[in-house]
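If you are new to this repository, start here. Below is one unmodified record pulled from the training split, so you can see the exact layout before writing a loader.
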Amino acid sequence: MMLTALNDFARERGLTDDPLYEVKPVDFFIRISAKGKFIKLESLAREDGRGNAMPIPRLPQRSVNIAAGFFADNSKYVLAYEKDAPKAKAGGVEKRLARLEAFLKPVREVVAETKDAEARAVESFLDSEAERSKALADRGAEEWTGSEMLAFVVGEATTPVHQNPAIRACWERRAGAQRALGRRALCLVTGREGVVAVTHPKLKNVPEAQPSGASLVSFNAPAFSSHGLEQGENAPISQEASLGYVLALNDMLRRTEQRRFRQGIQLADGSVMVFWTRASPSEESFLLSLLDPTEDDLKRFVESPRKGVEPGELDDRAFYAVTLAGNAGRVAVRDWFESRVGEVKQNIRRYFDDLRMGDAPAGPIPVYRLLKAVEAPSGRGLTPDIAARMLGAALRGQPFPRQLLVAALDRLRLPPADGGVEREQLRLRVALIKAYLLRDRNRGSTPLEVTVSLDKDNPSQPYVLGRLFAVLERLQGVALKDLNATIRDRYFGAASRNPVTVFPRLIQLSVHHASKAGENGRWLERTKGEVMALLPSKDPFPPVFQPEQQGLFAVGYYHQREAFFTKREAAAAPADSTASST
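And here is the target side for that same chain:
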C-alpha cells in the first residue's frame, strides 16, 4: 500500500511524466568550438550558489561501480578529474580514465549513428587531453570538487548539446530499448504487467544513510533470494513503479532554503517523517507549517494567530505518513500511517491543546524544540523509534510512549540552566508531561484532568506537593536572595520520587526562611498554609510516587511557579509603563 500511494503521488504531481529525464542543477556549460576546441567554462550558478536546474538524461545508478551519464555528468566523468587520490585501478586501467572512457563510449556511438556535428565536437574535445586540461585550468584547482555537474554547448548556441533534437531522439531510442529488456511479471505495486526492476533507484538525504543514496527495496545476497530468483525479481516491482516511489520520496526529502526536508520532519538524529495527501500542495504546506513550523511560520502565527486548526471533519481526502531511517546503504521503514485529512486536523488540534501551558496560545511548537528539551545534557536525544512514536501518536490521537514521560522526568531532575532559556525549556518539558498524562490510558475509563494553568482546588496529592515545592523554593529565594544552589537543584528529584524523605526537612527550613523574608515571607507562609491544607491529614507525604504521579508533581510545581512569575510581572508592569512615559 505504501509504495502504491507513493507511486500515485509521483504520477499525480507529474514527477514521472518524462521517465527518461531528470531535473538536476547544472553548474557549468563547457563551451567548445565546432572542432572541439575549448572556448570557456560558463558558470550557471544562481544567487544561492546552486547550479541552474534543467532536464538532463537520467543518470544511471552507481555507488562504487562506473556508470556514465549521456552527454552530461560530473567532472569526474567529463574531465577525468581526481582530487589528491591514489591511482585506483578499474579492470587494469586507472579509474579516472575508466570513467572518462565510460562517458566517451556513448558519445562515439551517437556520432557513428547520427553523424551529428555537435556530437562530433564533443567527441573531439573528450579525445583531447590538452583541451580537457584547458577546461580544468579555467577554474582554480582548489575550487574543483568532482561533484560539479557539466554539460556542453557548441559555438554560439544557447541550447546544450544533450537537448539537441537528434541527440534526444538517439537517447530515447537507446534508453527505451534498455528499459524493455528484462523479465516481465505482474507488478506488486500497480497490479499490471511490466518489466521488473532488477535494482531500484536510491533515496537521497535520508538521515544516517550514505550521501550517495540508499535503497529502500534491495536483495543483494543469496540469503535474500528464493526459488532461483535474483535481486528485484524476488518481489517483482516494475521499472516504472520503482522509479515512481523513489521520485516521490526524493521530492519530499530534498532540501530547500528554509528546511532540511521539503516535506519532512526531522525526528531525533537518525530518522525523518515525510507525509503527503491526496489534497493540494498548499494543504500539505499548511500542515507542515503547523507540525514543524520554521521561524518565519512562527512569526506569521504570532502576527496573525489562528484560532486553532481549521476543523475539516468532513475532509475525507487521504493522508499518508512514513518514517524512514538510514543504516549505511539501506533505508528502514520505522512507521507507516494512513488516515484522512479531516481526522489528522482534529488530532493536530487536540495535540496543540494537550501541549498548551499557562497563557501561551494553543499554537505550533517545532518538533525539534520538544525533542531538544528532553535530550540528555550530553546532547544525545531520544532514540529514533521514540521520536517517531511520539509524532505518530500526535497524528493518530493516541497515547504518547511512556519513555517520553521518563525522559522528561529524568531531564527535570538535573540542575537547571540559567536565564530565560531554562524557563522555556521547563515549559516544554512539563508540556510533554501534561500531554502524556492527558492521553494516559492506563488509568482506565476515567481520564486524568490536567488544567492549562494553576488549579487551586485540585486535591490530587502529587499535584499539591508539586505546588508546595514551588512555594518552598520561592520562600528560600526571597529569604536568601543570591544562591549557589536552590532546593530545586538539590532536592527536586528526591521530592518528586520519595516525598517523605525530603518534605519534612524542607518544611522545617521554610520556617527559618519565612522569618528572614519580611512581608513577602508572611504572604508566602499564608500561601504555604493554603496549599498544605489540601493534603490529607494522614500520611501527607507518601514514601513513593510512580512516574505518572511524578509527572503530576512536575505539573503542579510548574503551575505554582508560573503563578508567582505572573504575579511578579503584573506588579512590575505599572512601574515599567511609568518609566517609559517619563
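Two things worth knowing about this chain: The chain has 19 helices and 14 strands. The chain has four domains: 18-179, 182-252, 263-443, 461-581.
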